[in-house]
């Protein structure tokens, strides 16, 4: 356990700050002329800005330094940089810290924290202030005063109190000023479960329902939003956070990444929220982007090793290492998107003289909620071009686009996911390649296959053929009984497939299986003269069945 925070100055620094000021003020006032290269860049920049103003979202972090580089100011700067925001910093404390824990803390004198705040806020246009380690009551008060003097668009308060390693980062006396003064100014407060418990006088938080109650109680201290983070609920297989805006509770789920590299997740999450708010996002969207970012960063860093302690840092700039297509930032998969799943077929498109793009366009116009390109005999280059064109259509209408089997095509066109069969690459391997932000579906005929799909990290399963079908050779028909058996055994949402058309789709949905979210259709949409009309008809059948 680290010593209680102490205020001190390193002995090698000049004994009084006035000596240091003297040193600074005796240096030449006039800046040296810029070197020729810099001048050239300035000219270019000046002519560019005349044509187009480039806003740079600006986050000011008021937090402690982590010598190990994983949390605190260092995490904040990296997180903001990764999301394209500028990050200025007011250092409240310097910690001697590594992957084993916190070995020492020097608190920066309050007056000097005030001076740093003044320097930044009086000169630069800060959009959002994000707070981390505020070691004492005095520091919290200095911050509140500066914020009243220099108001900003939003305030994100991460009430850092104890590090994950168990070291005290803020005196317990700060609890009262947090609650009574800072929270009322905050747009969002982001305690982890331990911090939420301390803020509420030690209540125990074990379940998501406890987290909801805690969010509601903390909301009463005055922030506009509360996010209670569940990263430390280690027994849960999901990393679930609870968001509360005063009216509604929203549970945010992520896969719990199996890794020791979680040092700095809280600092990073709050800085990502601040960056998105600085860009103009709504609070819920900012929180969703931030959560996806942490999940992706942990996924990409799960096997990295740095230091010998139990809690390593992770790579905020993982995107620099992976090709742009490997990075998922879209909100995660929603099972209801399986409702009307259109699966294209190259043979049928040829027969009716349509391009893949025209077929997809028509299915979306008719109301398809997700599209899969199943092009078994297209040339790779031609298929990729078509897939890119389809991606544009799907993106603009908010409909996810999946690619059947071809992970390479999905990566190259940044598709939303991949659907694999039992003889294709395993969902586990596909997940390794695509990362956590993408959708993965697996065709399953048996409970064992459905279980394997869950183990492999798939998002949904396709189950069939429910009826006899001509689009797949040697495909045994499962019938309603087979579909029921698989649905009941599956932990994942299911879409039914195989011979489904306008006359039998209703009966499939009427089975009333809770995780059967929709039907996947090939011939009944695409082996017809009008794809739009058939899709529209199918949509109204499904909508009417699910209403009854
Ligand atoms: N192993 C993990 N896998 C996925 N997300 C995680 C994991 N650990 C933490 N998170 C997420 O990181 C964010 C920070 O949460 P948490 O670690 O609880 O905060 P703190 O770092 O303040 O203790 C939350 O969104 C949480 O759900
Ligand atoms: C300077 C500083 N600020 C914040 C944290 C909390 O980070 P975490 O809870 O992820 O260990 C930390 N360890 N050090
Ligand atoms: Mg953490």
Automatic annotation (TrEMBL):
GO BP term, pick one: thiamine diphosphate biosynthetic process
GO CC term, one of those recorded: chloroplast
Compartments reported by the entry: Plastid, Chloroplast
Pathway of action: Cofactor biosynthesis; thiamine diphosphate biosynthesis; thiamine phosphate from 4-amino-2-methyl-5-diphosphomethylpyrimidine and 4-methyl-5-(2-phosphoethyl)-thiazole: step 1/1; Cofactor biosynthesis; thiamine diphosphate biosynthesis; 4-amino-2-methyl-5-diphosphomethylpyrimidine from 5-amino-1-(5-phospho-D-ribosyl)imidazole: step 2/3
KW rRNA processing (keyword) present: no
Thiamine phosphate synthase/TenI domain segment(s): 340-525
Annotated Polar residues bias: 1-10
Family indicated by similarity: Belongs to the thiamine-phosphate synthase family.
Catalytic activity: 4-amino-5-hydroxymethyl-2-methylpyrimidine + ATP = 4-amino-2-methyl-5-(phosphooxymethyl)pyrimidine + ADP + H(+); 2-[(2R,5Z)-2-carboxy-4-methylthiazol-5(2H)-ylidene]ethyl phosphate + 4-amino-2-methyl-5-(diphosphooxymethyl)pyrimidine + 2 H(+) = thiamine phosphate + CO2 + diphosphate; 4-methyl-5-(2-phosphooxyethyl)-thiazole + 4-amino-2-methyl-5-(diphosphooxymethyl)pyrimidine + H(+) = thiamine phosphate + diphosphate; 2-(2-carboxy-4-methylthiazol-5-yl)ethyl phosphate + 4-amino-2-methyl-5-(diphosphooxymethyl)pyrimidine + 2 H(+) = thiamine phosphate + CO2 + diphosphate
Name of the molecule in the record: Uncharacterized protein
Gene3D superfamilies documented for this protein: 3.40.1190.20, Aldolase class I (3.20.20.70)
Keywords carried by this UniProt record: ATP-binding, Chloroplast, Kinase, Magnesium, Metal-binding, Multifunctional enzyme, Nucleotide-binding, Plastid, Thiamine biosynthesis, Transferase, Transit peptide
Primary location: plastid
Keyword Plastid: yes
Molecular-function annotations in GO: ATP binding; hydroxymethylpyrimidine kinase activity; metal ion binding; phosphomethylpyrimidine kinase activity; thiamine-phosphate diphosphorylase activity
Extent of Low complexity compositional bias: 11-28
InterPro entries linked to this entry: Aldolase_TIM, HMP/HMP-P_kinase_dom, PM/HMP-P_kinase-1, Ribokinase-like, ThiamineP_synth_sf, ThiamineP_synth_TenI, TMP_synthase
Domain Pyridoxamine kinase/Phosphomethylpyrimidine kinase: residue ranges: 66-310
The species this protein was found in: Oryza nivara (Indian wild rice)
Protein's job: Essential for thiamine biosynthesis. Bifunctional enzyme that catalyzes the phosphorylation of hydroxymethylpyrimidine phosphate (HMP-P) to HMP-PP and condenses 4-methyl-5-(beta-hydroxyethyl)thiazole monophosphate (THZ-P) and 2-methyl-4-amino-5-hydroxymethyl pyrimidine pyrophosphate (HMP-PP) to form thiamine monophosphate (TMP).
Annotated region (Disordered), positions in chain: 1-40
Cofactor: Mg(2+)
